[in-house]
Amino acid sequence: MEDFSYQKPKTVDDAREAYSASADGLFLAGGQTILPVMKLGLAAPSAVIDLGGIEGLRAILVTDSVVSIGAMATHATVAASGDVRQAIPALSDLAGMIGDPQVRTRGTIGGSIANNDPAADYPAAVLALNATITTDKRQIAADDFFVAMFETALEEGEIITNVEFPVADAAAYAKFANPASRFALAGVFVARTGNSVRVAVTGAGTCVFRVADMEAALAKDFSATALDGITVATENLNTDIHASAEYRGHLIGVMAKRAVEAAQTKGGGK
Fold first, then answer.
1. pLDDT, tens digit, for every residue of 49-107?
2. Half-sphere exposure (Cβ direction) of 162: Cα atoms closer than 13 Å
3. Closest listed residue to residue 141, CA positions, set 81, 64, 61, 198
4. Tens-place pLDDT, residues 21-45
5. pLDDT tens digits for range 216-243
6. C-alpha atoms less than 13 angstroms from C-alpha of 246 in its C-beta half-sphere
7. Residue 23: DSSP 8-state
8. Rounded CA separation 84/64 (Å)
9. Phi and psi dihedrals of 49, rounded to 5?
10. What's the CA angle centered on 120, arms 117 and 121, to 5 degrees?
11. Which domains are seen in the chain, by residue range?
12. Are the beta carbons of 183 and 248 closer than 8 angstroms?
């Protein structure tokens, strides 16, 4: 690991100033990805700006229609929040599935979605619930946020401040996890709001994506059997030491049905 300066600003404005003043700075959220990368010598920033000192980025605010989660809220905090569980149980469930207790205690929602790991859990919730990502500069719709593997719509130096999730009528997340890392080999988040259904898949491809055929079928009949016969093309799915593209394609169908069944049981909060 190379030498770097470390700063822990108290406000978003101070964090932005520190970043602008650095030659090659980066923002530190939970550090679950960037610190291992730095230890391996794959990244050597001149300055690390720790966002953990900005108390306002940890807030969780819940209304009848929206769950707003600060970017620095940890997975453990979201999983344990009674307000979040009351409004969107699936969001609490998902947060509780991430990694292990150590990861959940340090990892943050902002860090997760900014990193956009193709096997991360939160991107599926953001996309399926049609969330809005608020930064220090603007608001970004979920459909516009995730661009490609480890790439988002964030501009250089842009800071995520919070994520707003509309409360769905019914929602659930199901994943087949790698037993070692707990990353998703395939994870599916299903959300129904009125006559609209969104289905988002993580872990199976190079970036989180929606499945239009499943959404159309579930909009007509929100039941697991409505997904019978629907398959996901495998040419854009991952093949690695853990699973083939064909196996991941099969898992998407299985996890989607489980998510629908769970959504019917748990509902969404409205």
1. 999 999 999 999 999 999 999 999 999 999 999 999 999 999 999 999 999 999 999 99
2. 17
3. 198
4. 999 999 999 888 888 888 888 888 8
5. 999 999 999 999 999 999 999 999 999 9
6. 0
7. S
8. 11
9. -105, 105
10. 155
11. 5-53 (3.30.43.10), 56-166 (3.30.465.10), 170-266 (3.30.390.50)
12. no
- 8 Å CB contact between 196 and 219: yes
Q: Which residues contact 216 (CB under 8 A, 6 or more apart)?
A: none
Q: What is the DSSP string of 210-253?
A: E-HHHHHHHHH--SGGGGTT----STTB--SSS--HHHHHHHHH
Token pair recorded at residue 247? 């196996």
> What is the distance between the alpha carbons of residues 181 and 100, in angstroms, rounded to a whole number?
8
- Please state the pTM of the whole predicted model: 0.94
* Crossing angle for the helix pair 245-266 and 89-97, to the nearest 10 degrees: 140
Angstrom distances, CA of residue 59 to CA of 53, 130, 134, 143: 13, 20, 13, 24
